[in-house]
């Protein structure tokens, strides 16, 4: 009867047919693109030509707390590999024991001494322990790719935030220039009013334009400070310890990068590689769950010395040993089928996650490619719009001084120029951020670095003192 129960339970393990990966990798990109791949360099951010951006990113890679936490998870995963690997090595323990005993009504004290070594080992006949170890190893690989995902996210966030800071600084300069221009127009209108060729309404309208331009400055200044504090957080520092000089987006370069065929992107994206490692770990978990249905074979051995006298404890007459072997078979364990179904469900979830990561990588590249192309086109057109608006505004100003144009025309050209200038900065920012998105979509430069996934250990920078001033 027991044999029938054992066979019935073992039969629940069934056959395990791994589903196909089912990745539909197209031959090319919908938005086209160059035929020759230009993959990101390990330090791809240097291509923007900003030494300050490079300094910020290098500091973030070294000091960011999210990256540090990801590195700590690598250490945990490595430790779990050692824990799971212990089942493949015999367990050896040593013991020593001494006893003194006196019976009631007797003055004689009887002593006893014992020292022994014991070993136990489970034969991994069905591969359960090996599968458990391999699952932990795959999880450790996944933790390394997860660290690369976090690091790539931090680097791109630093770049995007830095570019947003530069855009805000440009908009602040434009706003102050607009205030100066609006003040000149107001002075011209006041001069005409003094000689009777303008009226109070004209002056009030222009003063409204001037006040509106002044009102935009505090908000832009707030955006600058907010971007600075966001950079400080990414660098793991208090905002007071960070001083960013900034500059102009127009002074930066756009590094060249181009995707190869979509299938190559899958090997360069750390998030896809992480999902792949998680899928491998889930596969090993299914193997271990199936092996749990079969008999377990344990070997034990013990040997040592035992004697009533310590001085003769290690004599040949005091030695003893024992050897044993045992076999155990689950007969009625309803948890095992449930555990197997659980691991199979987790494997299917990991498979779907891997497929989604692959498709997401294709989507990210397509979006970044079209964004790069369209923002470059939009920046060119918007630059032309700024030049036309500037020309119209200069003509209107000259005619205003000569009294050959009314104030309404000047107001219209002012608003058109101010709006066009702001739009140009926003479009230029979008182009640089699209470039960052393309680098991120291609997996950054970790695959080109030649170093193992996971990178170097976290190095904490020493805390600054008040005398140090702001961190550079």
UniProtKB/TrEMBL annotation:
Membrane topology classification: Lipid-anchor
SUPFAM superfamilies on file: Outer membrane efflux proteins (OEP)
UniProt cross-references to Pfam families, sorted A to Z: OEP
Keyword match Membrane: yes
Cellular compartments per GO CC: plasma membrane
PANTHER family: BLR4455 PROTEIN (PTHR30203:SF33), OUTER MEMBRANE CATION EFFLUX PROTEIN (PTHR30203)
UniProt-recorded name of the protein: RND transporter
Organism: Methylopila jiangsuensis
């Amino acid at each position: 009867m027991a044999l029938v129960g054992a066979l019935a339970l073992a039969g629940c393990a069934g056959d395990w047919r791994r589903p196909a990966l089912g990745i539909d990798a197209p031959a090319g990109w919908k938005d086209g693109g160059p035929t020759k791949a230009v993959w990101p360099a390990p330090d791809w951010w240097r291509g923007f030509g900003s030494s300050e951006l490079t300094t910020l990113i290098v500091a973030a890679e070294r000091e960011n707390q999210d990256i540090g936490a990801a590195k700590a998870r690598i250490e945990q995963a490595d430790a779990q590999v050692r824990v799971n690997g212990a089942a493949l090595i015999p367990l050896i323990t040593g013991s020593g024991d001494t006893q003194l005993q006196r019976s009631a009504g007797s003055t004689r004290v009887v002593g006893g001494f014992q020292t022994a070594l014991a070993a136990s080992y489970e034969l991994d006949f069905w591969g359960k322990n090996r599968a458990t170890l391999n699952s932990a190893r795959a999880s450790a690989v996944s933790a390394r790719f997860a660290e690369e995902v976090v690091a790539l996210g931090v680097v791109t966030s630093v770049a995007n935030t830095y570019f947003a800071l530069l855009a805000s600084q440009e908009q602040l300069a434009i706003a102050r220039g607009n205030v100066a221009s609006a003040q000149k127009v107001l002075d011209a209108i006041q001069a005409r009013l003094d000689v009777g060729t303008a009226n109070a309404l004209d002056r009030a309208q222009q003063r409204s334009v001037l006040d509106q331009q002044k009102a935009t400055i505090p908000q832009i200044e707030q955006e600058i400070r907010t971007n600075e504090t966001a950079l400080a957080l990414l660098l793991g520092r208090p905002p007071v310890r960070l001083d960013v000089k900034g500059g102009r987006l127009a002074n930066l370069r756009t590094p060249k990068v181009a995707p190869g065929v979509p299938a190559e992107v899958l090997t360069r994206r750390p998030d896809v590689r992480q999902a792949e490692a998680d899928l491998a770990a889930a596969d090993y978990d299914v193997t271990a769950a199936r092996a749990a249905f079969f008999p377990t074979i344990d070997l034990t051995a013990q040997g040592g010395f035992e004697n009533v006298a310590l001085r003769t404890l290690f004599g040949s007459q005091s030695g003893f040993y024992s050897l044993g072997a045992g076999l155990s078979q689950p007969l009625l364990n309803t948890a095992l089928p449930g555990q197997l179904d659980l691991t199979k469900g987790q494997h299917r979830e990991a498979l779907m996650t891997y497929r989604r990561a692959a498709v997401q990588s294709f989507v990210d590249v397509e979006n970044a490619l079209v964004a790069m192309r369209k923002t470059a086109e939009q920046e060119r057109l918007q630059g032309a719009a700024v030049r036309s608006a500037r020309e119209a505004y200069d003509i209107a100003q000259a005619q205003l001084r000569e009294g050959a144009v009314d104030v309404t025309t000047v107001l219209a050209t002012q608003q058109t120029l101010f709006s066009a200038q702001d739009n140009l900065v926003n479009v230029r920012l979008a182009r640089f951020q699209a470039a960052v998105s393309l680098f991120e979509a291609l997996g950054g430069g970790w695959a080109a670095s030649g170093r193992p996934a996971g990178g170097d250990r976290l190095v904490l920078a020493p805390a600054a003192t008040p005398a140090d001033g702001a961190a550079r």
